[in-house]
Amino acid sequence: MPRVLCLDSSVIVPYLVPEDNSQKAEALIQEAILTSIRIVVPCFAWAEVGSVLLKKVRQKLLTSEESQACFEDFQMLPLEFIDRSSLRNRAWAIAAEHHLPTLYDAAFLACAELCGAEFWTADQVLIKGLSPCPTYVCSLLQYRA
């Protein structure tokens, strides 16, 4: 079975913007691109990533131009945006099962499940909150190129 990755925004943003996890995010995403690994994300991921980039402008961490360039780079990534009713239903169930406060994280988890993907995240709070933690969840901090 071919390898599939579902990348959390906490992995995509450090790929686009220099921050703590940038080296590992770059290595993971470059590995996926160079070896033609399928990369999936929920259909709204563009809005979530864009919102983080805009927040970085408000925080004076990026200029408007830098943020725009990062968003353009994001749009060039070979991402498959997943939108299915089964994703929405499974996200709701995951949020309830793990007592998640929003559907955003649950949607990424559901996307990974439905696509048979490894879910990569840098969100340690999310990982610690998943009990039991699904076997398909991978911490970017543990990534080895």
UniProtKB/TrEMBL annotation:
Pfam families: PIN. SUPFAM superfamilies: PIN domain-like. Coiled coil: none annotated. Residues 6-125 form the PIN domain. InterPro entries: PIN-like_dom_sf, PIN_dom, PIN_Pae0151-like, TypeII_TA_RNase_PINc/VapC. Keywords: Magnesium. CDD domains: PIN_Pae0151-like. Transmembrane segments: none annotated. This is Type II toxin-antitoxin system VapC family toxin. It comes from Vasconcelosia minhoensis LEGE 07310. The lineage of its organism: Bacteria, Bacillati, Cyanobacteriota, Cyanophyceae, Nodosilineales.
